[in-house]
Amino acid sequence: MKILGISGSPRAQGNTDLIVKEIIAGASAAGGETEIIALRDYAITP
């Protein structure tokens, strides 16, 4: 199973990042193929 974690927090290592990392770690431990994307790393404009 593929699982994608998306963090929309502007703060690196903030609470949202920590929660997403914990969820992805659990999914990975259960055998899932995981990836995390942080939206702050992308230039998103209207």
Keywords:
46 residues, alpha+beta, two-stranded parallel sheet, 26% strand
Tell me what the structure shows:
With 46 residues, the chain is α+β, with helices and mostly antiparallel strands. The protein has one helix at residues 15-29; strands at 2-7, 33-38. The chain has one domain. It contains one helix and two strands; from the N terminus they run E-H-E. It has a two-stranded parallel sheet with strand order 1-2. The chain is flat, with a radius of gyration of 12 Å.
Show the helix and strand layout.
Blueprint: E1 2-7, H1 15-29, E2 33-38
Parallel strand pairs: 1-2
Q: Write the element-wise H/E pattern from the N-terminal end onward.
A: EHE
Summarize the amount of helix as a percent range.
25-40%
What is Rg?
Answer: 12 Å
Number of helices: 1
Structural class assignment: alpha+beta
Beta-strand segment tally: 2
